[in-house]
Design a protein that fits this description.
It contains two helices and two strands. The protein is of the alpha+beta class. It has one domain. It comes from Halobium palmae. This is DUF5615 family PIN-like protein.
Length: about 45
């Protein structure tokens, strides 16, 4: 799975999905405004 942090525009996330990629975003996971360390830990725990 690709975890897109808040610097990745949602149209990019949606475009990846249309191309068959498994993607989630910081917005969808309620991770907006979290620290870089928190994003990294979330991504690590969720592969």
């Amino acid at each position: 799975m690709i975890y897109a942090d808040e610097n990745v525009w949602m149209p990019v996330v949606e475009g990846l999905r249309r191309r068959g990629w498994d993607v989630t975003s910081a917005r969808e996971e309620d991770m907006l405004r979290e620290s870089d360390e928190a994003h990294f830990e979330y991504a690590r725990k969720n592969d």
